[in-house]
Design a protein that fits this description.
There is one protein chain. A hairpin with a 5-residue loop joins strand 3 and strand 4. Strands 16, 18, 19, 20, 21, 22 and 23 form a 7-stranded mixed β-sheet that branches. A 6-stranded mixed beta barrel has the order 3-4-9-6-8-7. It folds into 4 domains: about 70 residues, no CATH class; about 180 residues, no CATH class; about 300 residues, no CATH class; about 190 residues, no CATH class. It is α+β, with helices and mostly antiparallel strands. About 50% of the residues lie in helices and about 15% in strands. Helix 21 packs across helix 24. It is built from 24 helices and 25 strands.
Length: about 850
């Protein structure tokens, strides 16, 4: 029972006791008195209910009165209301937009059945020079699938790209290899047809395919007769057995799924992701121990000697979002700072407004209103302002979400297709609005309710100094500090971006146009046919009008994939321990087309083909590390672990190092001629590079040349190398743009807050300034006095902001390139910018103060 119910019960008993005592005093017996009192009082339970309802009604009535009075008060001051509501609408809307993305990507459960029980299994070596995503190798996967008990089922899958031909123009599709248990584990079944069978997991039986709903509708017009039809993927005819429900594209925006038929190779192992559905009652720790035990019981692979693998059971959602979690949380923190600055701004406005309403509040107190009633009224007005701002913030959030999605780098933010405003976003906006209203309203409400009536009525409208003055200064100082933290983060990201853009990448990317192709193994089953295709393409590209240089490379610089490995050196020059190099396959003319300088020796030629002596070109770092005191040209290396007489390659040239990977680091590189490469794996993906003459356009002609050579092979990544580089650094650029936007908004709000406080102070001190002028103060002295106060506030805020920046900007470490979070140049630069913005904001009030006329001011205040 609640305290209020206890009070009502005690009050009813007290009334009955008084009535009984009164009747007994008049001569009635106790029984008669009790009976008469109860008959007069009526049903006790009904009276209690009525009393409760009356209490609630009074509370609701008072709330309604406060809201109506607050609305009328806001309508009487349209300028104040517009500024406050607009400020909050921007800040709350920005927070709602970012929360929409964070909620959809990080917080919302995966769109699968009981997603909390889905975990990724991983057993990989630690301490590798490169990072591997969680997964199991093929042998362990088969063993684990056969003996696992902590999971109901496990499924393997692997991303792939496939060329769809024979259904309109050939196109490259994102897809996945998936085991027969894949859809059962996720708890999602095809909307049409069926999933894969266990038999289709076996090599030789995997020529079936499942389509996404989007692909089915766009390429096949939503024809339900697609089931049983044959489509061609990478030149392989496959029978369509199912169509997935709308919205299902796991993993990574897949449009087609083919069976994962594991083929064990004695010389190689393949690692792919494995997901399992945890049994009821089992724990991730138990599953981890079981995985480690199964792995240890398997025969050891001699090639894994020296590695120390670690078992891990990871929530599936974490494997999808871990790489963007920090970035999104940083953005959420940044936009929360903007909201705090907006709160401080509006709190200052309310303090100023409260000063102009002191007479009104004093009259209300004199007429009997309690301090609590006054504070509640002021706090209700604050929450009302925040709710109006939140309602408009929803409109800002709609535009903000669209802007965020438009700015987001393609393929870098997982689950981006699921981003949408929903009930959780509306609830978040409501909660933020109410909390914000209380946050910025509580101090002005308490301050406005504490003033004595006689003091307020005696002072009239003038307020110089006092607690309001100190509170406004504190709020401005806090705004400046928060703005400096955001400016520092944005400054660090901007400096990092400028360093990236000015980086010497080792080649000339200007005007270079690239076009990638993937050749299907059915049409191009061996190296000879692939080499013939590439030779024909190079010859056709070289005939394009305006093409000044043409080449090809298997894995272009700054691409998403590459091949790394070790090699053998002839003679007494051993490789450093763990030394690995990039191994792209290139054509003659590639170095010239991309502007890579040949420092020694020569380029490949058409004579470097099968049957000719094996040759290789090395990068400058390889030459210096392996043969530091001698020329590398003429030396011999081998790609084989135990080379025979015909496995040696002669170094014919040395070229400068280039930035080869997405981390913008320079790798040691061995370049192999495509005409001497015998493995189709190193040849079937190739990027053609064309350097056009100044003013020439070659992209359309490159696509036409490919269509002439083989219309079933689609062009991919037809773009300039500059565009490729921007794609490589797209994620830090995205973060930079958002941080810069929030920092600019914070700077603007801080400047407006500084201006508002100083403008009001000058207005309140007009008489004081007039007296100073009358006693001999010059306009210059008054100007310096006001700007000096501005500088003091800015310096205090900057000092707090620098301390906060040194603490908080460390979260940007992983997003920065060759810049430290404590970079002194950035700290000094943003501090200067903020100081200048504060002084500009204070200059207009200072100029107004300097223009005060002493005699006029004194006469007006008489």
């Amino acid at each position: 029972m609640s305290r209020r119910d206890d009070e009502i019960r005690e009050e009813i008993h007290a009334h009955l006791a008084l009535a009984i005592a009164d009747r007994m005093a008049r001569g009635a017996t106790r029984a008669e008195a009790e009976r008469a009192a109860r008959a007069e009082f009526g049903n006790v339970t009904h009276v209690a209910e009525v009393t409760r309802e009356v209490g609630r009604g009074v509370w609701l009535e008072r709330l309604g009165q406060d809201l109506r009075y607050g609305w009328r008060a806001l309508r009487r001051t349209p300028a104040f209301t517009t500024v406050a509501v607009a400020t909050l609408a921007l800040a709350i809307g920005a927070n709602s937009a970012v929360f929409t993305v964070v909620n959809s990507v990080l917080l919302a459960p995966l769109p699968f059945r009981d997603p909390g029980r889905l975990y990724a299994a991983s057993y990989l070596p630690t301490g590798l020079p490169f990072e591997l995503p969680p997964g199991l190798d093929d042998r362990l996967y088969l063993e684990y699938r056969a003996h696992v008990s902590r999971f109901e089922q496990v499924a393997g899958y692997q991303r792939q790209a496939l060329t769809l031909s024979g259904a309109g123009d050939a196109t490259r599709l994102a897809g996945a290899l998936a085991s027969s248990t894949f859809f059962d584990v996720l708890g999602v079944q095809p909307a049409l047809g069926r999933a894969f069978t266990a038999a289709e997991d076996q090599p030789g039986n995997e020529r079936v395919v499942i389509l996404s709903d989007g692909l089915w509708r766009t390429r096949f017009n939503g024809d339900r007769g697609i089931l049983g039809a044959t489509i061609t993927l990478d030149g392989v005819p496959r029978t369509v057995v199912g169509v997935m429900p709308r919205g299902f594209t796991f993993p990574a925006a897949s449009q087609v799924w083919t069976p994962l038929a594991v083929r064990l190779d004695a010389g190689n192992s393949f690692i792919f992701p494995v997901v399992g559905r945890l049994r009821a009652g089992a724990t991730p720790e138990q599953a981890k121990s079981e995985l480690a035990a199964i792995a240890r019981a398997m025969p050891q692979d001699p090639r894994a000697a020296g590695f120390h693998p670690t078992a891990a059971i990871i929530p599936l959602k974490d494997t999808l979002t871990s790489h963007v979690r920090t970035s999104l949380l940083v953005l959420a923190g940044a936009v929360a700072f903007v909201l705090l600055i907006a709160c401080a701004n509006v709190a200052n406005l309310l303090l100023i407004r409260a000063a102009t309403r002191r007479h009104e509040m004093a009259v209300r107190v004199a007429l009997g209103a309690s301090r609590g009633r006054i504070a509640r009224q002021l706090l209700t007005e604050s929450v009302l302002i925040a709710l109006i701002g939140g309602a408009l913030g929803i409109l800002v959030a709609f535009a903000g979400v669209r802007a965020l999605l438009a700015m987001a780098p393609a393929g870098r933010i997982p689950r981006i297709g699921e981003v949408q405003m929903n009930g959780w976003v509306l609830l978040f906006t409501l909660a933020v609005s109410v909390i914000t209203g209380i946050l910025f309203g509580v101090v002005p409400a308490r301050s406005g309710a504490r003033r004595e009536p006689h003091e307020a009525l005696g002072q009239g409208m003038r307020l110089v100094g006092g607690p309001h003055h100190r509170l406004r200064s504190i709020f401005v100082t806090g705004e400046i500090a928060l703005a400096l933290i955001l400016l520092t983060g944005a400054g660090l990201m901007i400096k990092s971006f400028l360093i990236m853009r000015s980086l010497d990448i080792g080649y000339d990317a200007s005007r270079v146009v690239t076009m990638a192709v993937d050749l299907p193994s059915i049409a191009y089953p061996d190296a000879a046919r692939i080499q013939a295709f590439h030779t024909t393409m190079l010859e056709r590209l070289s005939r394009i009008p305006g093409a000044s240089a043409v080449g090809a490379v298997s894995f272009r610089p700054m691409g998403d994939v590459g091949i790394m490995g070790d090699f053998q050196v002839e003679g007494p020059s051993p490789l450093p321990h763990g030394y690995n190099v990039d191994k792209p396959t290139v054509s003659p003319g590639y170095f010239g087309a991309l502007g890579i300088r040949i420092l020694a020796g020569r380029d490949f030629t058409a004579a470097d083909r099968a049957g000719a002596p094996g040759v290789v070109v090395v990068s400058e770092t390889v030459a210096k590390q392996i043969w530091p005191n001698a020329s590398a040209v003429g030396r011999r290396i081998s790609m084989q672990e135990h080379p025979g007489p015909n496995d040696w390659l002669t170094v014919i040239g040395v070229v400068n190092d280039v930035v080869q990977d997405a981390a913008l680091s320079r790798h040691s590189t061995l370049y192999l001629p495509y005409l001497q490469t015998t493995s189709p794996f190193f040849l079937n993906h190739m990027t053609f590079v064309v350097r056009p003459a100044p003013g020439a356009s070659v992209a359309t002609a490159m696509r036409a040349a490919l269509r002439d050579v083989d219309p079933a092979v689609p062009a991919q990544a037809l773009q300039t190398m500059d565009q490729s580089m921007m794609e490589t650094i797209a994620e830090p650029v995205f973060q930079m743009r958002l941080l810069a936007t929030f920092a600019f908004l914070a700077l603007l709000l801080a400047a407006l807050g500084t201006y508002g406080v100083l403008a009001y102070d000058v207005s309140g001190r007009t008489r004081e300034i007039g007296l100073r002028m009358a006693l001999g103060a010059t306009p210059g002295i008054v100007l310096r006095m006001v700007l000096g106060r501005t500088a003091v506030l800015a310096l205090l805020g900057a000092a707090l902001g620098v301390a906060g920046s040194l603490t908080l900007t460390s979260v940007l470490t992983m997003s920065l390139f060759e810049v430290k979070p404590t970079d002194p140049i950035t700290l000094v630069a943003v501090t200067v910018v903020l100081m200048l913005a504060a002084l500009v904001a204070g200059y207009l009030p200072a100029q107004r103060a300097a223009g005060v006329r002493a005699l006029t001011t004194l006469l007006l205040h008489e």
